């Protein structure tokens, strides 16, 4: 199996798992996985498709600028520039973006603060935060309709090889060294958001 094929399979399996959680409502969400460093090339979901379905056209190979490596009648995700920013600034190997009700409500509740912090919650260990006083701080940025503008705002929060950024009333993007890590971070964030919303209900 070539690297391209194995990366395709890795991303397709993640897509299926996230689809099983119903995290691709209304064709939302996009996923990417790095295939090579020199030249930088990555697979990204084709724009506007139903990501709950598995088809041979689910992913497109793009370069560091987000342009197609080979001609296609499909377009790469409208948000490919966010994935480009991650691979430009880090050695991360996979980036995942989903819209969920929980991440949208949290982004609205905490958007004016520009971040949401979690401390003393076991799941922050997914981000490598093991000490009792460690804080997981997830930035929340405005949702600019102009994607190059959104990508610029997003870029300033890409500070390590793994991370997460919430886009207000839009969704979350996470990245990690490979598909396993990126999915772990995404699941941890969604757990923390649901936990926080549950706390709001009883307080
Ligand atoms: C109609 S879904 C919302 C989209 O505008 C976008 O935010 C999204 O996540 C999916 O866009 P896509 O171009 O399919 O990757
Ligand atoms: Zn989106």
Automatic annotation (TrEMBL):
Any one GO cellular component localisation term in the record: cytoplasm
Cofactor: Zn(2+)
One GO MF term attached to the UniProt entry: zinc ion binding
This enzyme's EC code(s): 4.2.1.109
SMART domains, alphabetized: Aldolase_II
Coiled coil: none
Keyword terms, alphabetized: Amino-acid biosynthesis, Lyase, Metal-binding, Methionine biosynthesis, Zinc
Pathway recorded for this protein: Amino-acid biosynthesis; L-methionine biosynthesis via salvage pathway; L-methionine from S-methyl-5-thio-alpha-D-ribose 1-phosphate: step 2/6
Protein's name in the database: Methylthioribulose-1-phosphate dehydratase
Biological source species: Psychrobacillus vulpis
